[in-house]
Specification:
alpha+beta, 16 strands, about 270 residues, 4-stranded mixed beta sheet, single chain, 4 helices
Length: about 270
């Protein structure tokens, strides 16, 4: 079965819109370049995100090609406004006005602001997995599901089954090595989801019983190659990964082949 990297998505500002790219470099910190390298924080240094404040989901962003400038718009913001990211003060003031409390934009280009510090690499999902979830909720589109789950790397291939990505993690206490193009990655665990996927990425409205329905469907369709011990609950989709420092400078490219290694690595 030929599996390849079909889509690459980076999220320059954590919790805001992603950007589709054709290729991406691996940083010395083991993340995708420009992925979640900015974060919004309040006066106490706590992250401002879609889980904490649904209004974050209603912000629309556009980045220039060099990721040096961003244009934002949101409900009641008076239209789109552009900001340079090298001097984040003006953007912080705009965000403070939007949210109604002090917000600062902070930057970490090497290692970013991942949700899982033990697995800070890109999240990986198979396109058929997203399509399966789409079918669980009438009215949702593939793009809507993508925006709800916000995965970095999307895999595809002829006759690829749903949840093929569950092959990228193994038994508890092990890492699963695999390779995409020239980059070696380690699969850690199925990604635990929060309240964000239940919320519409445009309106932030919550879909009733989203999590309950997801867990029941995921449990019923858990493939035989998925290690059930990794599911203390089934509100999980996509795979958390890490990338070794030796891979820094290498690039992932759309169309790169995906290869599984033969043996898990104890941790």
């Amino acid at each position: 079965m030929l599996v390849h990297l079909a889509r690459i998505l980076v999220f320059p500002i954590k919790s805001l819109d992603g950007v589709v790219v054709e290729e991406v470099r691996i940083t010395p910190g083991g993340i995708l370049e420009n992925d979640r390298i900015y974060a919004m924080v309040d006066a106490e240094g706590k992250t401002v995100n879609g889980k904490r404040d649904p209004r974050a989901l209603q912000l629309r962003t556009r980045f220039d090609a060099a990721f040096g400038e961003v244009a934002l718009a949101g409900p009641g913001s008076g239209g789109e406004k552009a900001f340079g990211l090298a001097q984040p003060g003006p953007l912080g003031r705009w965000l403070s006005d939007y949210f109604g409390f002090a917000v600062t934009l902070i930057r970490e280009p090497r290692s970013g602001f991942p949700d899982d510090r033990k697995a800070p690499g890109p999240t990986v999902v198979a396109e058929p997995s997203l399509r399966a979830v789409m079918e669980w909720y009438p009215g949702l589109t593939l793009e809507n599901v993508r925006r709800r789950f916000r995965s970095n790397l999307e895999l595809a291939g002829p006759h690829l089954p749903p949840f093929w990505d569950d092959r990228l993690f193994g038994e508890p206490g092990t890492l699963t090595p695999f390779q995409i193009g020239e980059v070696r990655l380690s699969g850690h665990n199925p990604c635990q989801r929060c309240t964000v996927p239940a919320r519409d990425p445009e309106t932030s409205e919550t879909l009733p019983d989203f999590q309950k329905e997801f867990m029941a469907r995921r449990r019923a369709t858990l493939p035989p190659w998925a290690n059930a011990e990794r599911f203390n609950h089934t509100y999980r989709l996509a795979v958390n990964t890490s990338i070794l420092p030796a891979e820094a400078g290498k690039r992932l490219r759309r169309g790169d082949p995906v290869a599984l290694a033969d043996q898990a690595i104890p941790v």
